[in-house]
Amino acid sequence: MKFIMPLKLALLGAAVACITSSQALADSANIAVAANFTEPAKEIAAAFKAKTGHEAVLSFGSSGQFFTQISQDAPFQVFLSADSARPKKLVEDGLAVKDSRFTYAVGKLVLWSKEPGLVKGEQTLKDGKFAKLSICNPVAAPYGAAAVEAMQTLRVYDELKPKFVEGANISQAFQFVQTGNAEIGFVALSQVINDKDGSRWMVPQNLYSPITQDAVLLKKGENDEAAKAFFEFLKGPESRAIIEKFGYEVPPAKAS
Amino acid sequence: MAGLPPDIWQPVRLTVELAAMTTLILLIVGTPIAWWLARSKAWWKEGVAAVVALPLVLPPTVLGFYLLVLLGPDGPGGALAGLWGGRTLAFTFEGLVIGSVVYSMPFVVQPIRNAFDAIGDRPLEVAATLRASPLKAFWTVAVPLARPGFLSGAVLGFAHTVGEFGIVLMIGGNIPGTTKVLSVAIYDYVETSQWREANILAAGMAAFAFVVILTMMMLEKRTARIKG
Amino acid sequence: MRDLANSINAQFRGQLGRFRLDAAFTVPATGITGLFGPSGCGKSTVLRCIAGLQQLPGSRFSIAGDTWQDESLFRKAHQRPIGYVFQEASLFQHLSVKGNLLYGAPRQPAGQSASQSIGFDEVLELLGLVPLLDRSPRHLSGGERQRVAIGRALLSQPKLLLMDEPLSALDRLTKDDILPFLERLHERLSLPVIYVSHDITEIERLADHLVLMRAGAVIASGPLTKLQSDPTLPLAASRDAAVNFDAIVQRYDSDYGLVTLQLEGAELLVPAPPVAAGERRRVRIAAGDVSLARQQPQQSTILNALPTRIVSATPLNASEMVVVLALGSGGDGARLLARVTRRSWDQLQLATGQQVIAQVKGVALAPGRGQTVRSVSRLPPA
């Protein structure tokens, strides 16, 4: 049962996501992280702690869920969204620090199966020889929206819609495929970057709008040293290396 | 209700169907279990009782995880689904029923068992001395005397299935009309900032929960009066 | 051994926790057999074994030639034609009185002629249940509940009625209300009954036969009067030792309100309300109410001075002894008990085999079966 370990981690992520972090300690920051970014965020947090001594307390969930929670005064100081619209809205609403928004990663959508040879390319979608296709909630999660967009571009959306199973976030969409309950699914490249056994198709960028994942410094973190330090660390070279390692693109750093 | 999405009531209907089906199955499956737990002298019966009661304590994520694995193509659920050409019981109404039966089991079995326990040996002995076979005694004495327990069990089982969220979220796949039940729909509406819809459903759930709890309290009061 | 066809043969052996039961007895399959002994002696367990509610390996039971269990056979409780009345009425709370009564009644008493079966109306009349029929058991008094329980057991058409201390949960007055119903049952139905009690007064009023138990074992069994008057058994030695007779009413003297009763070897005069000749009445004569005289007293208020022969005398303690007497001038009638002081015994120079006059100071007469008279008549002390 080799899938148990990663599944456990994913579950843990899903479970933690439901909990709003407790009050921040003096030298720790509460970071809300879109579920697709779970693994790189952990590595970044570890590197951040090694370098600064500050603790980044990570919560994982869907961007939509965090957006709702933040607008309801959740105690997060930094938000790593899976899209750019929500961070933008938070700035507009005065919940995030003006001008803090930047793109920390551009996500890559992958059609993935744990069965070798099952995913061969866009033809796999057109043939539709599977019972269930896992995606994440297209309204709440950008990877879901990207998946829908890609299928619409390929004109397979209507045929495939009855086969959709929806995860509440990208972790769950991955879980469904990982446990074999859905044969294939649209997931984030970062989730399967280390997978050697399954089959995958990198969805070409021309089929969907770029998943620009933006981060914002929230109002609650405006005067918090640890939060600000993490936010800056995220822009730095150590973070870039980690993010790229997980299959994300990182746009060239803007002079800030 | 102008301006509401037309499918807002679909989760309600689905939830009622799921809860009704689950309750029916639990009454059928749970009654013999409750009877055995109440009557058996086996030393290991409390072990079985503990297993039945596990969902009271376990987080739904644990059950959801195991169900996802067991219902899937590599588990017995997949084998079962294979009988009618499916490959998994996850994302199906049947899968949700199985999950709900497991999850709500203690809420049905426990009150019925307590009711059977409360009857004691005597009425059944009396029935036996009046030539009633064990089966006749069960139907004509034990079941009528345990009626408050059956009522509590049915109400609690139904209500608990309606309120189930974690497991459905983990094994359901949020398919409208099949697995998108009320609690998941509310979650979905909140997630996607459709607060008005979320509000309607959530307020309905709150009212429902109130009615259930009120019913239970009145049932208990009545039972107390009967026994006292 | 008695004729198997007309007897109840019971043998129950086994270990129940720390309690060892080893009880065997044979009694006639007619009339009421009292199962008597102190609390915890195992009499209720015996009854549960007879009912098949408890199974002890290596036990046997048969009634009138019909075997209910032996080494290779065990009929379960619901397969035995019994009626069982528990200490608490244990009515079904979810059924009406009528529903309770009819629970065990066969749909149609198939294979039974009407005369053999116990009729619904008859039971209602016998136990006074008509006004209760539509009531819920919740709204009955303790005595009413127990009457319904008895009726319910009877209507299941049993071949043997088992009663486990049916009156012990009731207060004295209620008990006295129900006893006449039981006496009427005894008279009207030919149903054999095994009646468990630790209260000797119930046994004295109802039982024809007696099985005495102690510590899980049967210490004696036989006709009631015989066991009552056996000086080696604990009954005769007890403080309220007494003997009972079923006497026949000879005549009634309405001038003095006295009834003349015939019993084996003697006639008794007892004050009582009017009663018809020929009726059968149970009388009780307590050992403490009998004194002995060497001669017929010449002038005395005592009505009953009966010629008897001393059968045996057993010291009870330092001061008293219990004397067994045989009624009749020939000394071959029914047995009577007298408790006398050892001093009187020595002063009168009494000895076994002697003819003496038994002076009976009081005779308790059970109320007539049709009556609901609560008190028993008793002569004022001489």
Distance between the termini of chain A: 48 Å
Following the backbone from N to C, one meets helices and strands of chain C in this order, namely EEEHEEEHHHEHEHEEHHEEEEEEEEHEE
Helix content of chain C: 10-25%
Kindly provide the radius of gyration of chain C, computed on alpha-carbon positions and rounded to a whole number of angstroms. 22 Å
Total helices of chain C: the number is: 9
Outline the structure in words:
The complex is a heterotrimer of chains A (256), B (228) and C (382). Chain A contains eleven helices and ten strands. Chain A has 256 residues and is an alpha/beta fold. Chain A folds into two domains: 28-106 and 211-245, D-Maltodextrin-Binding Protein, domain 2, CATH 3.40.190; 107-207, Periplasmic binding protein-like II (D-Maltodextrin-Binding Protein, domain 2, 3-Layer(aba) Sandwich), CATH 3.40.190.10. In chain A, the strands form two sheets. In chain A, strands 2-1-3-10-4 form a five-stranded mixed beta sheet, with helices on both faces. A five-stranded mixed beta sheet of chain A has the order 7-6-8-5-9. The model of chain A is unreliable at 1-26 (pLDDT under 50). Chain B is globular and about 65 Å long. The N and C termini of chain B lie far apart (48 Å). Chain B is mainly alpha-helical and 228 residues long. Chain C is of the alpha+beta class and 382 residues long. Chain C has helices spanning 43-51, 97-103, 120-127, 142-155, 172-188, 200-206, 224-228, 234-237, 342-347; strands at 7-16, 19-28, 32-36, 60-63, 66-69, 82-85, 160-164, 193-197, 209-214, 217-223, 242-253, 258-263, 266-271, 280-286, 290-293, 304-315, 320-327, 335-341, 355-360, 364-365. In chain C, the strands form four sheets. Chain C has a six-stranded mixed beta sheet, with helices on both faces. In chain C, helix 2 (97-103) runs parallel beside helix 4 and helix 3 (120-127) packs antiparallel against helix 4. The longest helix of chain C has 17 residues, at 172-188.
